Amino acid sequence: MTRKLYYEDCHLRQFTATVTGCNPTENGWQITLDATAFYPEGGGQACDLGTLGNIRVLDVREQDDQVIHLCDAPLTVGETVTGILDWDRRFDLMQQHSGEHILSGLVNQKYGFHNAGFHVGKEVMEIDFDGMIPPEDIPLLEEQANRVVWQNLPIHCHIPDPEALAGATYRSKRALPWPVRLVQIPDTDSCACCGVHVARTGEVGLIKILSWTKFHQGVRLELVCGKRAWDYLQQVFFQNRQISQALSAKPLETAGAVKKLQDTLAEEKFRSTGLQKQVFANIAKDYVNQKNVLHFADGLEPGQVRELADAIAQSCSGWAAVFSPREGGYSYCLASREEDLRQLGKAMTTALNGRGGGKPNFQQGTVSADETAIRHFFEQTASHG
Predict the structure, then answer these.
(1) Which of 231, 290, 307, 379 is at a distance of 20 to 30 A from 141, taking alpha carbons?
(2) Is 11 helix (H, G, I), strand (E, B) or coil?
(3) pTM, two decimal places
(4) What residues form DSSP beta bridges with 28?
(5) Which class is domain 279-384?
């Protein structure tokens, strides 16, 4: 049985222990110690990493009361070794996990909902609740969670005796037999949990909820705590400062400045659309009473290619084929007032290595061919038509 130092002192970063076992595996060596501060993966919390002596700890698991350290080299059974945790990783995980308890406890108190699962990812943490938290409640919920942090309340982790456990109220996904380890935060949460937590809520630092989404019959919240929250807000600050400088707006007035810019762009787009229609109409005039038209135009988006083809089709007596250069070929649109263009479109995409489709009198897509090949195809089509 391994003595679990991580439960005795959550801030223990370095320790000494005796090697009790070392077995080779395909992925490294499984090493056991008489005591360890390395937390094994469990309770939704990832394992600790670090070093034992001069070798790296790659993974930590618990099996039959033994904590097994997967390492990249062997150690000698009976030797004394110094373990050093990757403290930045451990403290980050404790901040996330303790922050999750604060938020889950408040949700349970206010709505009666339960934490149906949580995952601490590399960048953010996700918590799933089994009920629908109104999105408009999120700002207040976040404020309440941070008030718990600011109170710097003690986080009490312990295993009560069977009698005390029988009378205890705590969150759990299922009924649990004794022994049960409880993690308790005054007036906030009491939960069965085997994870490692900070000693006081103040160490969580900050809780920031990033998103709210419907998930099954409840909601999923995405959030960050502690240094992750600080890092996230630093990035937001620097990006907002760049926007502030670009728009010559104060940092707290960038949203209004962006809205003003969007309104200006919308007006310009409306004006340019009108000018574009005039340009397309003038181009179409050049093809009045012509039969079939092949037209090349630079710099058009697919929607503009279609609009120009439609304008020309209204002027000519046959079909209009408009092509505009794109990376690796051309965007195209075939348009006609009455003629069914599906056969022409299929023949063209086959000959010009293209793809597309649409309605009988509108065929649109792309081809991977140059202008010479495109002109050659339509010359052949005309000669056979």
Answers:
(1) 231
(2) coil
(3) 0.74
(4) 25
(5) alpha beta
- CATH assignment of 3-85? 2.40.30.130
- For residues 165 and 257, is the Cβ–Cβ distance under 8 A? no
Joined together, the tokens standing for residue 147 give 């008030």
Strands (E) located in 235-353? 293-296, 319-326, 329-336
Greatest C-alpha distance within the chain = 98
- Each residue's pLDDT tens digit, 124-150: 999 999 999 999 999 999 999 999 999
In the chain, domain spans? 3-85, 91-234, 279-384
Task: Enumerate helices (H) and strands (E) in the chain, giving the number of each.
Answer: 9, 20
Counting beta carbons within 10 angstroms of the beta carbon of residue 374, is it exposed (0 to 12), middle (13 to 18) or buried (19 or more)?
buried
CATH tag, 91-234: 3.30.980.10
Q: Is 126 helix (H, G, I), strand (E, B) or coil?
A: strand
* Residue 162: count of CB within 10 angstroms of its CB: 10
Q: Which two tokens stand for residue 145?
A: 């969670």
CA distance 17 to 79: 8
* Tokens encoding 104: 């889950």
